[in-house]
Amino acid sequence: MKYNILTMGCQLNENDSEKLCGMLEKMGYEKTENQKEADIVVFNTCCVRENAEDKLFGKLGELKKLKEEKGIIIAIGGCMMQEKHITDKIKESYPFVDILFGTHTLHKFPEDLQKALEEKKKIEDIIDIDGEIHEGLPIKRDSKIKASVTIMNGCNNFCSYCIVPYVRGRERSRKPKDIIQEIRELAKQGYQEITLLGQNVNSYLRVEREKGIEFEEYEGVNSFATLLKAINKIDGIQRIRFVSPHPKDFIDDVIEAIATCEKVCKLVHLPLQAGNTRVLKEMNRKYSKEQYLDLVEKMRNKIPNLTLSTDIIVGFPGETDEEFEDTLDVVKRVKFEQVYMFIYSRRVGTPGDKMENQIPEEEKHKRFDKLKALVESQIEENNQKYVGTLQRVLVEGESKNNKELLTGRTDSNKVVVFEGDKNLIGKMIDLKIVSEHMWYLKGEI
Ligand code: SAH
Ligand code: SF4
Ligand code: F3S
Fold it and tell me: Which residue's CA is minimally distant from atom 12 of ligand 1?
């Protein structure tokens, strides 16, 4: 029996998919990339922006035929399933879907699937309360070199545009011992790079400490900073990354830990969202333009070789042209290594959706194009700075576009393509950068 899985969301969702794969393989299923060959098709959905919904409904249309011809099992899970208007629509317009499961019931997937198969009935397993953290789920990781480790779930920030707090519940952190032991095991298996995941990764254990919820310290870990320090000591692990942090949680001990832990990559993701203070306030981001720029300055002073990436939303309700200029201004000043740009998308149930002064689509697109042009010119300029330098690269595998070449990433997460022997895969090597090509660099041993 074969399964096919489609993941639509962020790295947290991808990590959940790795767990779904682990559970399915433990049940005896084998993975296939070919949907037509599958006995079960699983969708792990995202709902952070509208286009994800269009994609799901488009796919469901396609799958209907397969369902009719082969009687496959169709299961849909993930963040979108925590939205009632979506599950209602699926039940009404796509009644052939067999299993609906949410973000808090992922661990019950084998049980739900068994039930659907044996009892031949539709399963809906979605709860609205904050799920507990379930340890020890089987996992089938996509890479043998880099591993993602979810350290906390949920979000308490309620940025006014964002659906995540409603679909992922409140913040809760995994126990230090569970995380450290998982990473030790990964090191033993030969993993080189660890990415710590959470919707607010750098507020790890903050709620627990603030609310006096008891947790067991392990090897001195009682905060995000101490967690970085403990992982830094694990032999075999060469690189530590983390996403996605919130600027408000870059407190001094976190900055100090990034600066002093040699394995922690010096590329830090610092989501800006908007550059204008009034817009930031409406977004409920809890910092002003000046505070953001001050934080950048402080981090640059304390962390040698710091590079920054960011997320930006254009066209938040009420954003004027002039206010948008502030976003461009911050981008010009900070010179980010990478900018993830998004057009504001109304999400049902968020305060942003109820705001009256929504920006017309055309205007949002105009701003997006303006930002994109600025970002691309900066990336080109920044890439030039790499040419002629020596970069430490973790070799990840064969290049997707040309199997003769190898590909790896710098500390700043830039892709470097180069000629080399396959036995370099999984190793850290020094490469001289010889040219730049917008989305990748070319290197030589
Ligand atoms: N917890 C993370 C990531 C949240 S989702 C953080 O706070 O940074 C990833 C990104 O999607 C956000 O940073 C934001 O830039 C974007 N995003 C979230 N909601 C959005 C919406 N309604 N419209 C457009 N972009 C959105
Ligand atoms: Fe969404 Fe804001 Fe939470 Fe990030 S911090 S997940 S943008 S509410
Ligand atoms: Fe999307 Fe859920 Fe991640 S809404 S961005 S998959 S947490």
Answer: 311
